[in-house]
Amino acid sequence: MMMKTLVALLLVATIAATAHASGEEEYEIFPLQLNSGAASEDATLQGITCSSWRLAVEVHNIIEWSTVPAECENYIGHYMQIPKYRQDSKAVNREAYLWVRTVPLPRDGRNIWIFDIGETTLSNLPYYSQNGFGVHKFNSTLFDAWVEKGVAPVLPETLKLYNKLLNLGIKIVFLTGRTVSQTDVTVENLKRAGYHTWEKLILKDPKEYSGKTALEYKSAERVKLEKQGYRIIGNTGDQWSDILGPAAGRRTFKVPNPMYYIS
Amino acid sequence: MMMKTLVALLLVATIAATAHASGEEEYEIFPLQLNSGAASEDATLQGITCSSWRLAVEVHNIIEWSTVPAECENYIGHYMQIPKYRQDSKAVNREAYLWVRTVPLPRDGRNIWIFDIGETTLSNLPYYSQNGFGVHKFNSTLFDAWVEKGVAPVLPETLKLYNKLLNLGIKIVFLTGRTVSQTDVTVENLKRAGYHTWEKLILKDPKEYSGKTALEYKSAERVKLEKQGYRIIGNTGDQWSDILGPAAGRRTFKVPNPMYYIS
């Protein structure tokens, strides 16, 4: 079992290195230094297996949860590191492309695709691998310090879709819960990860959206985009709050994330 | 591998027999007679594994698909027969109960919970196990002949939730795509499976809903229920068309079904 995990880890490291073809330097955090997450067994919490918990989370049956159940730390850690997480992401991004290439698009420059950032275009896995894979209560100070390093690795299956969308003439809008004060580091991180162009990068203004949920913030920003004349063709996020609500997009896509939940 | 599958099959047969505690006779179709579905390997279709395909289907990323990819017949067949399918169903139904028992309910007799029937309260697995687990194109003649036998087995995790809801004083409404001509056999089948009481059993009137999707039919019937004064607390289905649209319910729950898709 340990051997298998080691192989998987090396594999992840290889994938990360390969995907980051354009960068000069290696991300310091790959391969992951693990405090946990090395076991693959499907533990059980009160009669529910962790794999069934994960499915119920992805399908939005289990909602508004605050942390990954402690029993599932190793299971979730393992899932995030083996090829399965990437395969699950690939299935979603591939479906998005199979669909969008069949959609007749007016050639008026108004077609956009919205991407969330964390766990959608960039991975916070190096941070979460040091923090219990979502088992620990969210610590905004620690997390912001990680974000401000600007070294979040690319999620390569999303980057593939991004490039294909650009080739189809669809413009990219990043819509993130990161705050406006993190604009520079986000721009830098996106470019380092291989996202070199976009129509808009929308970060959260904490004053404008004080006390609002992510769902409210993102919906309001999408409505603004439509009022500006944009046509939201597709919308990809790792959270249901990215893809529910008004002006969600002609089709929405949820990439996997069993580590945290944002309302 | 064959031995493992055999053990799994015996397990399914045992579960079915145990769950159907109140019936005098065994369902003729358990244990399943298999034409396929005995292999557990996670095959690949065009770079996507069948387990990633199944996740994308459950999350509603892959939509409007007509049949299970042929490459995935064995994978899906295996999934449906091992405890995992039941565990996934349990996680959803348990979450529904954990939530609903915290909801303050006016004691006015107007609280209802909507259940779909096929793959939600009763299982068509004996039929699908003989028909490629969703790989074959849907054949309404053959399927109706199966429904009219009236022997679809219980889905035991849903029955547990059903009984708990009744104990909480919530009334049950079954809302199904089965047609009104199948009323008698449906009543008989529900009772044989352990569902002994309900407020309403709504079957589809093919004249009223000619040319309408399941989503339109079910939404329209739910709106009628609310106009009649009912309060839809929860709504459980195996299809997204059961739980999207107006008057969906205060919370919705999707139980797994990787065998077919209904718009």
TrEMBL record, chains A, B:
Domain of life: Eukaryota
Record GO terms (molecular function): acid phosphatase activity; nutrient reservoir activity
InterPro entries recorded: Acid_phosphat_B-like (IPR005519), Acid_phosphatase_pln (IPR010028), APS1/VSP (IPR014403), HAD-like_sf (IPR036412), HAD_sf (IPR023214)
The keyword Glycoprotein is annotated on this UniProt entry: yes
Signal sequence bounds: 1-21
Alphabetic keyword roster: Glycoprotein, Signal, Storage protein
CDD domains xrefs: HAD_VSP
Signal found in the keyword field: yes
Function, in words: May function as somatic storage protein during early seedling development.
Protein family according to the UniProt entry: Belongs to the APS1/VSP family.
Protein name per UniProt: Acid phosphatase
